Amino acid sequence: xxxxxxxxEKLLDITFDEVYIHGYNATSVDAILKKAQVPKxxxxxxxxxxxxxxxxxxxxxxxxxMDNFFKFxxxxxxxxxxxxxxxxxxxxxxxxxVTYGCPLYRLMVELSARDKEFDTLLTSKALQMQEGIxxxxxxxxxxKEFDASLDVETFSAYMLSAGWGILSLSPTLSSxxxxxxxTKYILNALENYKN
Length: 195
Prior knowledge:
Elements: H1 7-22, H2 29-36, H3 40-46, H4 50-69, H5 80-92, H6 95-100, H7 103-111, H8 116-142, H9 152-167, H10 176-191
């Protein structure tokens, strides 16, 4: 017998899917409640508002998924370049990412200019992701894989924004093959700094 998922957890999971696919503004509390099959009072027992629900979802679901989607870390017995290539390959195989784009990026575009609380929260994660890329690049310099002239601050921002840009194409223009082909240009730019 399958264990019943607690209401709060179910609301967070469904909110992630709804906001990711439809965006914050197009997602209604009623749609979330209908999919969760819970009464409105149950939601308000856990969250005071749609905004509070989505903020909790960002911290408890979106950030965890971002860490899984964009694992920028050196793998055992691999170079930094191979690790970047592997990360891009894994991303290219994630159908949701290729179809709908980066959920963090989408929320930043939709909400950051309008809501300071969302902007602060979402920007903190984007900066954390950029720091992960920067750490990899620094490791590449440290191990002499890359030349010390590589501006890790600028290049990490470029890699993150370029990767998001490729994922932000319409579903008609998006495919795993296109993603891999386009991320090759990011890696080619990094190749210029190889020792």
